[in-house]
Amino acid sequence: LKVVALAGGTGSAKLLLGLHRLPIDLTVVANVGDNFWTYGVYVCPDIDITIYTLAGLADRSKGWGIAGDTFEVLSQISRLGAETWFRLGDRDMALCLLRTELMREGDTLTGATERARRALRVDCPVLPVTDDPVETRLVTSRGDTHLQEFWVRDGGRPRVFSIRYKGAKGARLSARVASALADADRIVVCPANPVTSIGPILAIPGLSAILAGSSARVVALSPMQGSAPFSGPARKLMRAMGSRPDSVGVARLYSRFLDGVIISDSDSAMRERIEKLGVHCITTDTRMKGPEDEQRLSKVLLEV
Ligand code: GDP
């Protein structure tokens, strides 16, 4: 079974671990909207957390970076008087340095990612949705900021007025992503922030139409429970976009292409509204507390 998973960061990584343990042919399509330049290197948080998680290296208690990493480079950068609000460990920095070097030599983000995932023995492709730069930017009460500035530097506190995916309109869908989607038997939308993780993927011209026209079933695991996400700023950002911050809102955002969705059993009252959108809805315990939940929910997603 060829399964393509559209993924963001930490929430997605948990489900990817479950999918990865099943006997399927898995390809991950990664968000690039949270990529940004800092300390002279190109940081790709969602791509890297995917690779670290599948390689068994991730710091799962923090939800980012490599377990046991040190922060010597960052300490020295701080001593030199620069701001260090974006935490980047030494080993984490090594991948960013290599990626920056490869891309300066003319390699694509896809090529640099492929090299890293193979070196770290991740046995499934991790494909950036595009090789063109796309940035999730927010107009907030602290000005026009990159998503990382809003979430990491400003702690997600500023008011958010609008969201845009800078560069997305002119970005080209990666050829490898297009071919993986064309061959897919099933497409899974991971539990991820619909605005900052899945939104930038869907903003790449042509992608939504491919999903809508695909003969593969497109299924999602909702990242919401009640009117909030399990973690992260989805509530605030969905509201800023004029969406309901719950599983109905998520199903509505994806309804153009979504065939089925798994939502929390505590939200069973939302089921009827979701089915009215033409989306088959299943209710179960959607919290992933460990490998058993990750695998159980992965299996349900392949059966919906
Ligand atoms: P990040 O925001 O960049 O860290 O990455 P993601 O967008 O991939 O992950 C955050 C999303 O995953 C949030 O919207 C969470 O609600 C969701 N999430 C986190 N843990 C769980 C879980 O155990 N179950 C489900 N269904 N969603 C989760």
Mean pLDDT: 97
* Number of contiguous helices: 13
Question: In terms of per-residue confidence, which ranges show pLDDT below 50 for 5 or more consecutive residues?
Answer: none
Span of the ends, CA to CA: 14 Å
Instruction: Note the overall shape.
Output: globular
Nearest-angstrom radius of gyration? 18 Å
How many strands?
Answer: 14
Major sheet: size, sense and barrel closure?
A: 7 strands, parallel
Strand order of the largest sheet: 5-2-1-9-10-13-14
Give the H and E element order: EHEEEHHHHEEEHEHEHHEEEHHEHEH
Q: Which distinct ligands sit in these coordinates?
A: guanosine-5'-diphosphate
Textual characterization of the structure:
The chain is of the alpha/beta class and 304 residues long. It contains 13 helices and 14 strands. It has helices at 10-20, 45-54, 72-79, 90-104, 109-119, 147-153, 175-183, 194-202, 207-213, 234-240, 247-254, 271-276, 291-303; strands at residues 2-7, 25-30, 36-38, 41-43, 126-128, 135-140, 143-146, 160-166, 186-189, 217-221, 224-225, 228-229, 260-264, 280-284. A seven-stranded parallel β-sheet has the order 5-2-1-9-10-13-14, with helices on both faces. Strand 1 (2-7), helix 1 and strand 2 form a beta-alpha-beta unit. Helix 1 runs parallel beside helix 2, helix 1 (10-20) crosses helix 13 and helix 4 (90-104) packs across helix 5 (109-119). It starts with a strand and ends with a helix. The relative contact order is 0.15. The mean pLDDT is 97. Bound molecules: guanosine-5'-diphosphate (GDP). Guanosine-5'-diphosphate binds at residues 8-12, 14, 46, 191-193, 197, 221-223, 229-232, 234, 286-288.
